[in-house]
Write a structure and sequence with these properties.
globular, 14 helices, alpha/beta, single chain, Immunoglobulin-like, binds 1-O-alpha-D-glucopyranosyl-D-fructose, eight-stranded parallel β-sheet, TIM Barrel, 539 residues
């Protein structure tokens, strides 16, 4: 992609480094593995890669417990390798996004070790939220992983951690905390990062005095007004490097969400509303409409996400009758799942999502149609499992290493034996595989370039979601999609209903998520991309 505003429409692939590709055969994915698979990613047709934290870390939370931002964990490789990886990726046309975790550090970070060593009342402790000894925790907050977000230092003082005890929260009122993070941004932009993904971006600022929850007052640690100033200063740094800021912001209020996307703040943020919706046309349309209408006033592009390393894998989620399987506290062991149904829907969802205006995120393994794995309790490593008292299976089930050739190999989480059938090399040879669908769809999406805004099309079929985007003729583009001349429209239809549905007349079939019926009808849980010439949509 050449556009400087690439982040407005890019397809971004999330690399969970620990489980992507294992270059040295020790059972853990690493940078050598990613470098070896860059051609695979280029061929897939994505525009950018987002690497989950690869920094020095005790891996108490899969690397979201960072001990040193300027070092790569030896289990993954070296800083030199990360630099080479980013250069090689750029040569293949892939931009690189690194993950910054500003809310907390690892308890092994030099700052926290120094704070523990320096003792109560020391300036070192002011970088964190320490509170004097007391019988009860200093306030009534509930942590993001559940439970009390306070633990004791060996000397009896409390310290705050919204996540695991190994992840002490930083004090964002301290100028040194701000200065250090601005330096970390520069450090990675200097090394070629085209953007950063900001972890837990709505949590860093805390209300003065860390007051207990009070329904009459703004939340003491979600979506605080002080955050906007922090991101404005980050934006100035990012702009100096032409880099993008991408916020991980879980906020139910769409209007408050888009405040972070004002022109002098973050470039984009993950749209978790869309990810949170069940397989239902009214629900999904509501989310699409809400997203587009709330983003337009701030001039920010929408983003579309179906999966990431924190939530139940798409084919599993869409194969469940109840909407219990998405994430966090609603996750359970042993939920009945129809994987065939879930896979059909996930294929349709891929075409639906890739047709929407904005940027789109693809989580590694989604392109292989990998399901969630139920990891035996004794092998679960995610701290969410233990912190939920063993009720929540945790997030390891979507973090199982990818099957590349299907051969057995050591791995830090067990790979189901049946996954050899889903191996990337096998799927690459099968034109009907999920991988082939993603490759074709991503290539065609890229050719569509700046297709026009989305308009919903009226239909009498209650289970049919149907929308169109006009695209202009582009002389330089020789793709089969853009040779249609003026007035040509890209139409997406998704059949959520129980019956086959007829396709509109005088339209050209571009891509389907599954076979049409013998009579050429669109079956249930199937999506199609069409091109219609001179087509006038109804509203
Ligand atoms: O996730 C953030 C996260 O899980 C919570 O803030 C979530 O938004 C909230 O509980 C929903 O109610 C990020 C990473 O993606 C995750 O892997 C890490 O474990 C976490 O931050 C801590 O760094």
């Amino acid at each position: 992609m050449s556009s400087t505003e690439w982040w407005r429409s890019a397809a971004i692939y999330q690399v969970y480094v620990r489980s992507f590709a294992d270059g040295n055969g020790d059972g853990t994915g690493d940078l050598a593995g990613v470098r070896a698979r860059l051609p695979y990613l280029a061929e897939l047709g994505v525009d950018a890669l987002w690497f989950t934290p690869w920094y020095l870390s005790p891996l108490a939370d899969g690397g979201y417990d960072v001990a040193d931002y300027r070092a790569i964990d030896p289990v993954f490789g070296t800083l030199g390798e990360a630099e080479k990886l980013m250069t090689e990726a750029q040569e293949l046309g892939l931009r690189c996004i690194v993950d910054i975790v500003p809310n907390h550090v690892s308890d092994q970070h030099a700052w926290f070790r120094a704070a523990l060593a320096a003792g109560p009342g020391s300036p070192e402790r002011e970088l964190f939220h320490f509170r004097p000894y007391s019988e009860e925790p200093p306030n009534d907050w509930v942590g993001e992983f559940g439970g009390v977000p306070w633990s004791r230092a060996p000397d009896g003082e409390w310290y705050l951690h919204l996540f695991a005890p190994e992840q002490p929260d930083l004090n964002w009122n301290h100028p040194e905390v701000r200065r250090e993070h601005e330096e970390v941004l520069r450090f990675w932009f200097e090394r070629g990062a085209a953007g950063v993904r900001i972890d837990s971006a709505a949590l860093l600022a805390k209300a003065d005095g860390l007051p207990s929850m009070d329904p009459a007052r703004p939340h003491p640690f979600h979506d605080r007004p002080e955050l906007h100033d922090i991101y404005r200063s980050w934006r100035r740094i990012a702009d100096a490097y032409g880099a993008a800021l991408i916020g991980e912001i879980w906020l139910p209020d769409a209007e408050r969400f888009t405040r972070y996307l004002r022109p002098d703040e973050l470039h984009t943020a993950f749209n978790f509303d869309f990810l949170s919706r069940p397989w239902d046309p009214a629900q999904l349309w509501e989310s699409i409409d809400l997203t587009l209408s709330t983003h337009a006033p701030v001039g920010a592009p929408a983003t579309w996400v179906l999966a990431n390393h924190d939530v139940t894998r798409t084919v599993t989620r869409y194969g469940r009758a109840e909407d219990t399987g998405f994430a966090f506290e609603r996750k359970r062991f042993g939920v009945p799942t129809d994987l065939e149904l879930g896979t059909r829907r996930a294929r349709a969802a891929a075409l639906l999502t890739l047709a929407l205006p904005g940027s789109v995120y693809l989580y590694q393994g989604e392109e292989l149609g990998l399901p969630e794995v139920e990891i035996p309790r004794e092998l679960v490593q995610d701290p969410m499992h233990a912190r939920s008292g063993g009720v929540d299976p945790g997030r390891d089930g979507c973090r199982v290493p990818l099957p590349w050739d299907g051969a057995p190999a050591p791995s830090w989480l067990p790979v189901p034996p049946g996954w050899s059938g889903r191996a990337a090399e096998r799927q690459a040879r099968d034109p009907d595989s999920m991988l082939s669908l993603y490759r074709t769809a991503l290539r065609r999406r890229r050719c569509l370039g700046e297709a026009g805004p989305l308009r919903r099309l009226r239909t009498d079929e209650p289970g049919l979601l149907c929308f169109a985007r006009a695209f202009e003729r582009d002389e330089s583009d020789e793709s089969d999609l853009s040779d249609g001349g003026n007035g040509s429209t890209w139409v997406t239809l998704v059949n959520f209903g129980p019956d086959d549905v007829a396709l509109p007349a005088d339209s050209e079939l571009l891509l389907t998520s599954g076979p049409l019926s013998a009579r050429g009808l669109l079956p249930p849980d199937t999506a199609v991309w069409l091109r219609r010439r001179g087509f006038k949509d109804s509203h």
